[in-house]
């Protein structure tokens, strides 16, 4: 399927690896010029070159902390009028809520709620003016099924989800959609960190924790980042203009509900 977005521009956050990288690669394969952002220059530039070699599109790499005002300014200077915005940031660490102080909550909210809102604020009016825009917020399956040791992430991402539910109904008439992609257990560094935390907390071997987690998933495996990237690309395409304000769960069937 031709998604009809060749020649568009995209700003993809936290894209040096994992799900952000997969989204950038899938968009680039559709002919979208991408600006990718992450904190560490070396891995980011390596990813940029990998995408260039695989797709031939223009790729800019901006090594900044997107959760800071300075980082957002630098990213938007490199990609001032994106047609597509993929919000993504590393989640806060797992732990026990009894150990978290106010500064832990503020850091989580800044990264996983306020940073996406600031980027939406900076780009959505231009999208409305051009009569095309696609905004994807990568959040977490924990928005629907909270995970106890990820309380900081649960709270911040749920706040973003509630905010987006309001504005997504106002932008769609201008062909600007805003949706959430909620990853379940994808085989990324983030998942490995979570499994390691469970292993440490319970005193069980990491492989045992990993195998048990896989066994509980109806798909019998973890997700592949490439699958996530292709879902993102579709939602960014011309054919997805009637989908907005939705939170689409990619979890191999792990969530047991009907809605």
UniProtKB/TrEMBL annotation:
<dbReference type="InterPro" id="IPR036291">
    <property type="entry name" value="NAD(P)-bd_dom_sf"/>
</dbReference>
<dbReference type="InterPro" id="IPR050259">
    <property type="entry name" value="SDR"/>
</dbReference>
<protein>
    <submittedName>
        <fullName>SDR family oxidoreductase</fullName>
    </submittedName>
</protein>
<comment type="similarity">
    <text>Belongs to the short-chain dehydrogenases/reductases (SDR) family.</text>
</comment>
<dbReference type="Pfam" id="PF13561">
    <property type="entry name" value="adh_short_C2"/>
</dbReference>
<dbReference type="InterPro" id="IPR002347">
    <property type="entry name" value="SDR_fam"/>
</dbReference>
